[in-house]
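so my prof wants the structure for this chain in the tokens format not the other one, which i didnt know existed until like an hour ago. anyway here's the sequence
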Amino acid sequence: MVAGTFHGFSADGSKLQPNAAAASISILYVFVAIAFGLFLRKTKINGWKQAILGIILIVAMLATGIAFPVYLQKQSWLYLVFVYIFFASVTPMWLLKQPRDYLTTFLFVGMIIAAVIGVVISNPTISTPVFTGFVSESGSYLFPTLFVTIACGAVSGFHSLVSSETSSKQIRNEKDMLQVGYGSMLLESLLAVLVIVIVGSLTNLADTGVLNNDLAAMALADTATPFTKFSVGVTGLISKLGMPQEWGLCIMTMFVSALALTSLDAVARIGRLSFQELFEIEESKAVSPAVKVLTNKYFATIITLAGGYLLSLGGYNNIWPLFGSANQLLAAMVLISLSVFLKVTGRKGFMLYAPMTMMLVVTMTSLGMSVYAICKKLFVTGGFAFLTDGLQLFFALLLMGLGLLIAFSSGKKTCETQSSTEPSFSCSGIKIFCCKKAGFVTLRQLLLFSTD
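here's what i got, hopefully its the right format
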């Protein structure tokens, strides 16, 4: 998706200035973020001074990127994006990811504020029907699709991984996680509402002249992606505040790519850490040469990115329909693991039982329906394609099996747990002592513990 966003040429060979400008800004973002991180580490400035400096840098990068766009083919950007992800995954958090995300936050918040003001000023009419039935034209059902979609912002499994591996390393105090975690979900919910309003009113925005002819054609084209629809819609709304639509489209394209890039490097880092933990052994045991290689962060990153590269060549779109179910199944696993953790440490965890059960039922229903539809193609109606349906069937069955295994093992362990004053448990080769003042435990350790 990122490489396609940066693709500087259309099908007829003409230059796409917004894409090329977004690519140029993204390149600047990487190097400016590194310089910004080094500067902050050396000078120790913070507060409003740091914020003002960040805003100045963002404005400078936007102006420079729009003035000097970089035109490259999609394949070239694909290679460059993977090179960036590799270095972003192995560099210290403070050097690239933290300052880059800090700068991106201003762009993100600014876009939301501008979109809200634009919606209020334009007062668009949502032309999309409120309710079309329990079954859509594509064959998807309101249940569980609606609940999987809402859960992506309310209780995301991916965000649980990010919280345990990246967010926890960037906060000053554990108490700050309430504002960081819950505040992020509220902001994401606001963004979701904006998306519904903007995408649902594109026809009205075009009819009332908020979108010019070029933008309207882009947004209403049959080939327009959800990202394109949202970007164009926000561009039209921002133009009501006096910003040229050409600039707005460049900035919105940059915004979409910035969110994707920060997600990619976070996923790669988490994938690398997960791969390393698969082969870690207790410190008291001798480490073999093979284990040293497998737990090497550079080797683990290459292996992680190799799978992503193969998917980018053709398999990515084939497993994407399962993303929502997989993400929320992971959220269910998090709630299950936390329930077990609270139980064995003598704490109250009853508040997790209802959402845990709900998420497990919703995701298993969604995966089960996917398996049924694919098997129907395979054995009844025909039209089964191995590279698309085969991949989806494999991953759907794998997710269902692993999810049920963890749920069963966790339930069994919870029933067998005996209360004690100072319980302890062994997890992933690490002895962790738990009491009512227990500290951080990573999510993957909880998952391993709940099935130990």
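also thought this was worth mentioning. Residues 418-441 have pLDDT under 50 and may be disordered.
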